[in-house]
Structures are given as C-alpha cells and as structure tokens.
Amino acid sequence: MQFSILINGERRSVEADPDTPLLWVLRDDLHLSGTKYGCGIAQCGACTVHLDGVPARACVTPISAVGSAPVVTIEGIGTHEWGRKVKAAWLELDVMQCGYCQAGQVMSATALLAKNPRPTDADIDQAMHGNICRCCTYTRIRAAIKHAAGLPTADTREKRS
Amino acid sequence: MNDREDHEGVSGIAGLSRREFLTVALTAGGGLLLTLNVPSAAGAVAPYQAAGTLNPYIRIDPDGTITLVAKNPEIGQGMKTTLPMLIADELDADWSDVRVEQAMLDPIYGPQFAGGSLGTPLNWIPMQRVGAAGRQMLLTAAAHIWNVPLDECAAQHGTVRHRPSGRTLGYGALASRAATLPAPDLNTVRLKTPAEYTIIGRFTGGVDSPRVLAGEPLFGIDMRLPDLSYAVYAKAPVFGARLVRANIEELKAQPGVRDAFVLRASQPDAAVRMGLVDGVAIIADKWWDAQKALRKLRAEWDPRAASNQSTHAFALEADRLAQKTPQTVLRRDGDVETALAQAHKTVSAAYAYPFLAHATLEPQNCTARLGHDGSLEIWAPTQNPAPGAKLVAETLRIDPGKIRVHMTRVGGGFGRRLNNDYMVEAAAIAQHARRPVKLLWNREQDIQHDSYRPGGFHHFTAGLDAEGRLTAFRDHFITFGQNGRVASSADLPRDHFPAGFVPALQYGQSLIELAVPTGPMRNPGGNALAFAFESFLDEVAHAGGRDPLALRLALYGPARVLPAPPPRYGLRIPPFDTGRVRGVLEEVARRSGWAHRDRLPSGTGMGLAFYYSHFGYVAEVVQASVDADGVPHVHKIWAAVDIGSQIINPAGAYNQAQGAILDGLGQALHLLVTLDEGRVLQKNFDTYRLLRIGEAPPLEVHFVRSDNPPTGLGEPALPPALPALCNALFAATGKRIRALPIDPKHLRSTAA
To answer: What residues does B639 pair with on adjacent strands?
Structure first.
C-alpha cells in the first residue's frame, strides 16, 4: 500500500504493508536510521519519535496509524527550539556512552520540556521512565534536562528523602 | 564547569599525600610504563601512504586539519576520544583541529579490542609516544626549512615557533616535509611531564556525539550497502539442539522473502563455543518482511538431553554438592579445619546468584559482503574483531588474508561482543546467499542466545577470635563447567580476597555440568564474587561486633605493596597496594559520613563494600531504606576510586564510574535469567528488567589520585555496588540478602 507521511517537515511517499511499524519505514525505506530498534514492544524507548508533538514508540506504531500527523525524528528535532537546546545540553554535559538509546532520550526530553519548561525530578522520572539507557547514563540525562531548562543541575534529591 | 563539578563531585578529587610506600609502588609499578607492547608498526615507522601522513595514526592536511586514528572499537567506554587525546597532547595539537577516524582491523595497529578495562593501561604510553614522535618530526621539518638548530624550535597548538626569531609555521605547512623524515625511535622519544599536558585531564566530549545526535548511520545496525538484503537467523531455543526439519518452502513463499535455507553447526559444541550453530536463515528485501516470515517458521529441533539444564535443577544439584567434599581444592593456606574448631565464634552462610544476559541495547547484528574474488568484507559492532575474523575464516574456510573487518560504532558491549557468533552467522548467510546481507537479531533472540554471566553458589564459613578478628575462612564454591573444566567466566581466582590475608583459608570448588554458553560480562567474576564475598564479610563484621570499615582496614593491614603477580596480556601487572585500599576506604567513609551513620533515621541504613579489579581500587557506600512492600529505595551512593595519578578525560571517567555503579545496582535489584530445560525463559525488557531513571539515585564519585600509572575504568566501579546495597539493606532492616536478585518479599517488615 502507498502511504504519504509528513516527516521532519517533508512529505514522503512509501510503499509498505499497513501493519509495518513506522520504525522500519523510517530506517529501511527512508534511511532515517537515527531512530533505533531496541525491543519491538515499546519497552525501551530507543525508537521514540514525535507524532503530532507527542512522544510515540515507532516500533509499535503501524504506518497505517500515522495518517496526517506530522512525524519528527532525531534527524529533524534540531530545528525545534527545545530540540536544539536539549542537544546542546547533551553535548555540553557529554551525556552519552555507547549512544544507542540517546536519540530516543533526546526525543522524550524535548517533548517533556516543550510541555513543561521547568520540570521537577519527579516530572523527569515520569517523562523519561520509558527510555532505557543500558549504559545507565541517567545521572547525566537528568542533569542535561535541567541544564537545557536553565535549572541548576546539582542532584539534590537525597536532601528531600 | 561549576554545574558539572557540583553534580559530579569533580571538586572532590583528593590528592593522596605521598608516602614512602607510594614511591616504592611507583618504582615497581612504573615498570608498567616501560614494558607495554608498543603498537607493532609504530616501531618501524617510515613515511606511510598519503602525503602528510606521519605514521599510521597521524595524518595532517595542508589546511592544518589533523586526522588521528583510533585503533580500538568504540563500545561506549570513550576510547575513540581518549586514545586520540593521548596522541594529540604529545603532538601539541589543538584539539579543535583534530578529527578522529576509526581504524579497520589491521595488524599494523597491534591488539585491537575493547575489554578487560585494558584500553588505558595498554595504550597510555604507546599512544603518547606516537604523538611525541609526530611532534618531533614536525619540529625537525621546521628546523630544516628555517635551517636553524632543532632546540631553538618549540611546538604549541598546532604551530612550530622559532624562538629566537619569532617565526612560525603551522603543522599544515610542515606535514608533507615532516612525512619524508625518518621516524624517531618510539622508545626514546621524550614524553611530557603532567604539568605540560594541554589536553590530557581536560573535560572532552565524545568525538562522535554530535553525529549520534544528528542521527548519522554510525552503528552496525545502520549499515547501508548497494543491493543490501536483510537477514534473520532462527536458532534452537534449547542450546545445542540440532535442526531436524523446517518448512523452508513455505518460508520462501512469504511476501518480500528472497530466500530461506538451513545452515549447520560448525562443530558439535558450537553452542557453548559461540560459533555457528544449526539454524534457519531468511533473507528479504526489508528486515520487517524477514521478521514477519520468521513468525511462520515451523521447525523441529532435537533437544538432546537438556532436561537437567534448569535453574531449579541447578539449585538442587548445588545443595547436593554442598553436602559433599569439594571436587577440587583451589587453595589451602594453613589448617582451616583446626582453625575453625579453635575459633571463638564461627559464622556460616550460603550465597547464590543467577545467570544474567548482557542485553546490549543494540541487538547483535553484522553486515557481510562476499567479493567476486572470494574476499569477504565485514562490518561488525564487535569488541573483539580479530578472533571474529579467525572464526569466520575457520568456519567458512576462507583465506584469512581475504577477510576485511570494519569496526562500526557499537551500541553497548559489556563483554557480549567479545564473542563473534553474529559475525560468523552473517558471513555464512552472505556466503550461502551470494549477496550482501545485514543480519539483525530481534530482541527475543538476543536475550535467548547470549553468552550468559554464569550463576554460582558459595558456602562460606568463617572463624573469629574473641576480638572479632577473622582467623579462618572457607568457601565451597559450586559453579559450572563442561567435562570437568570450569565454564567461561565461572571461575574463582585462587588469589581472591581474603586469600593471603587470613592465616587459615581454603577455597574448594565443585562443578555442575552446563550446556548453556557463558562468557565474560562487565567485570567477569567480580560482578558476582563481590556480592558474595563482601556481603559475607559484612556478616563477619557484625558477628564479631566490629565496624565493617574497621574490619576491612584491619584485614588489609598497614600500607604496603605486595609482590607483583606474573605478567598478563603482555604487560607487567601493577602490584597490589594495601595503601590504595586504605585510601579509598577512608575517602568514601569521609564523604558519606560513615562514622555518623547511627544518626540516620530508624529504617535507613548504610552499607560499605570494597573491591579491587582491573587494577582499580573502588570503595562504595550505599544509603537505603525499604518501603512497606519490601521494595528497596536507594537514597544515595558514594564512591571513591583510585585508578592512578591521572584522569585522562574527566568527561568519560565520571560517566563510566556512575554508569558502572548503576549497572551493578540494576543487577542486584532486578536482573535474572531463568533456565528451563535448556532454554531461557526471559525474552524482552518486560521480563528482563533493566534499571530505569527513577531508580537511579544521586551519586557522588570521588577520584583518589595516587602515584601510579593510570588504569582502566570500564569495569572496576561495578562490583562494590551490589554488596554495598545489600549491606545497607541489612543495616536498615536486619535482614540479610543472600540471593540475587533482591526479593522484596524477603524484606517486608513482616517477613521472618
């Protein structure tokens, strides 16, 4: 079947079975391989993209469900104001180790800040819960989100526990 | 910079005061610097390939751009940044002029692997020498051009300056001339003193990070080639089972499928050797089509006798073996039976830990292309490319000289990718299909076909004197093996602490027969042994009424350097230094407020652990409590780490220490692989529960600088996290964790 989808502001046409996950259309048809495969069951968040501005797991989103919703991926998020700030913070704090999950982390973090520019630690925990980092760079992910938001990055949680 | 310092405790770097024993350590341990194998080619450095190429690691373009080669694979430990930093500093390059290129597998670079936390100790001096040789060639070129004495020239930030005249020439203008000069002897080039470093020690971001965040195709899974097909490979759920029959014709008829065929195991024990095993390959134009066709696979496997390969059966067998004399005595110091009989008090406890999967977030994959001339080109996310190429050559009978291996960026290693099963599968599929293929495992295959961290069982008995001192120590270690040989990464080193520090000690060992593949996982041995030994040591401290910190300080005794062990990995092993143990124990105690832990609210406890591994000394304190459901809540973790005199890249170093600590925490809290009649029950991250952000507590990492050559940090910070947590939970609840993962039921306030 033919699908026309809006990706990173560009209209793209793809031929795919309706049940094909958006992830594989992005990766193997459109060669937008910044979005990663980790689990295929929406457990790890490596495939996080924005669908109409909301984080979505591309591995369980059939291409037929995308419809007219604009899709933004890691390749396009840098043109988004928060996307740009989040990426800059990620680099400044040198968040990544292997880096495989980080596109998904950045997409979730950008969506969080776009909705909530001054997140608390609890907000961060909730928004980032679905994104696994196998290297466990969580300390820096938390700090980088705060840094992008212009908040102090010191981890003060234990003082409240 | 302040923000970074605050949340990472950079401000807390402690200088160990120089003491006499440290000087001794430097003399002995300093040998490490001098005996390391220099990259094979670098000794023979002649003008090499393109203009501006000073040696196999350094190329300088006329515009001053400096390309440095990173020899080892990048699996997330930052070596692609760290190794070029060492070259660039000695080269007196400006880091902003540097771009980094990943080497291919090539004997010219000597050993190329990511493992054993060896990237730093093996390359610390050789990479600096490579840079220093380059600098000397550039200085000499300038001296020739100006016709002035060499010692009037100085290099700085990519420029050579003639001091008397003030004339300057950039490296870009000098490189082609420098490249024609004879290469200096790497063993005699002068290296900088630490005070002269301009790049080493600076917070330096990962060289690939901007490209990762731009979504560029860097990882193995991102590989693209003309006419590339996608492959899946279905193996038996039971390790070692043979394929009897499969519905190949039906698979071939699935939409998008180009081909389907059977491959056979290369040898009977290929499963435990991580070689090519029986399976069904499906090749399609899109990976999703191959994956969909895989669901239609109907295969009959001969499971062999795997019914005893179950977690439950292993536990019963371990109980049975525990009643008997150990099959092997690994070590016997003094007379442990008499010492136990004469002890003022004895303590006994049994500890157990499960099999674990690595679960790299990038599933195993590999791309392979067969050339018309019989050559084979491989793109692999591997930690260990050379044994992979050898495995492919032997299995597929390809001339090793015709195999070229590209090292892609690797989405997590953790030891999984020291094995190359995915590489031989991709190569075999490409050879059979006679077309370029990218093999990609799905997550379920990845978790169910790992080289697992082996489980194990320890039966400890300790003898204490009236003052609570440890006088006797016995462990009956029940582990796994094949035909009387210990399985990969299932061994107990005979010098494992407290061996050598207790007058009477015995380590006995018994084996359970294993048909499941095992292999190294981040800090092999240590990731399990630290939990058992350091938790039991805490029991000993409590039984003897002693502070766990004081007990350890007394056991390790006064600061001294022990005799150096024999060389390994071609390098002289730094001797064990009890002063460094003391240094990190005292530092972590001070940082965490260990002495004042009795002031913590009721129900909150602190636990301490120390572990020496991969030449690194790490002490950690965990503060934790337990909620009404018995679920542990970690409030904070403090770590003190001694990996020598120099933190090469603080950006990577803090990240490694933090990540390793949280990795260990996740293992203790959640991770478990269950075997059932030769198969793994867990399939994906819903049942194999990796740590998530809300479970990651605040961390403080403090580096204790000692006068020793820098060593690696990928692994040493992991092991103490598990026992420090369990010891904290004991302090909080009075309940001892003797089996992993931690079961909240055991910690509920009503639990016995």
So the answer is: B620, B701
A106 touches chain B (CB under 8 A): yes
Q: How far apart are alpha carbons B74 and A96 in whole angstroms?
A: 12
Total-model pTM? 0.94
| Cβ atoms of residues B479 and B509 within 8 Å | yes
Asked if B693 lies within 8 A of A138 by C-beta distance, the reply is yes
What is the C-alpha separation between A67 and B154, in angstroms, rounded?
64
Does the pLDDT of residue B268 top 90, yes or no?
no
State the pLDDT at residue B599. Answer: 97
Q: Average pLDDT of B182-188? A: 94
Distance CA A161, CA B81 (A): 37
- B117 neighbors B656 (Cβ within 8 angstroms): no
The alpha carbon of residue A24 is apart from the nearest alpha carbon of chain B, in Å, by 7
Percent of chain A clearing pLDDT 90 (strictly above): 96
- Which residue among A37, A128, A132 places its CB closest to the CB of B685? A132
Token pair in block for residue B64: 């001053």
Give the phi and the psi of residue B152 in degrees, each rounded to 5. -90, 0
Question: What is the C-alpha separation between B78 and B526, in angstroms, rounded?
Answer: 22
Per the CB < 8 A criterion, the answer to whether B312 and B675 are in contact is no
Of A100, A125, A143, the CB nearest to B412: A100
How many whole angstroms separate alpha carbon B404 and alpha carbon B377? 5
B288 vs A contacts (CB less than 8 Å): 17, 20-21, 24, 28
Q: CB distance from A92 to chain B under 8 Å?
A: yes
> Closest approach of chain A CAs to the CA of B714, in angstroms?
10
- Could you tell me where the beta strands, DSSP code E, fall in B145-298? 153-156, 159-162, 168-170, 229-235, 242-246, 257-263, 279-284
Q: Which of these, B259, B264, B280, lies nearest to B433 by C-alpha position?
A: B259
Nearest to B101 by CA among B75, B87, B80: B80
pLDDT on residue B147: 98
**A129 to B694: CB separation less than 8 angstroms, yes or no:** yes
Residue A3, strand partner residues: A14
Q: List Cβ neighbours of B102 (8 Å cut-off, separation of 6 or more).
A: B69, B70, B73, B74, B80, B407, B409
Q: Which residues of A touch B210 (CB under 8 A)?
A: 91
Q: Is the ipTM of this complex over 0.90?
A: yes
B511 φ, ψ (degrees, to nearest 5): -115, 140
The average pLDDT across B118-122 equals 94
Q: Which of A23-32, A58-67, B20-29, B557-566 has the lowest mean pLDDT?
A: B20-29
The percent of chain B in helix, strand and coil, each rounded to the nearest 5, is 35, 25, 40
State CA B384 to chain mean position distance.
Answer: 12
Give the pLDDT of residue B50.
61
Nearest to B550 by CA among B568, B561, B537, B533: B537
- pLDDT, residue B345, reads 98
Which residues of chain B have a CB within 8 Å of the CB of A143?
3, 7
Residue B176 CA to its chain's centroid (Å):
39
Q: How far is CA A69 from CA A41, A75, A103, B518, B665, in A?
A: 22, 17, 20, 46, 40
Which of A124, A135, A155 is facing B7, going by the closest CB pair? Answer: A155
Strand order in the sheet with B403-407: B257-263, B279-284, B229-235, B437-440, B365-370, B376-380, B403-407
**A-proximal residues of B, 274-333, CB under 8 Å:** 286-288
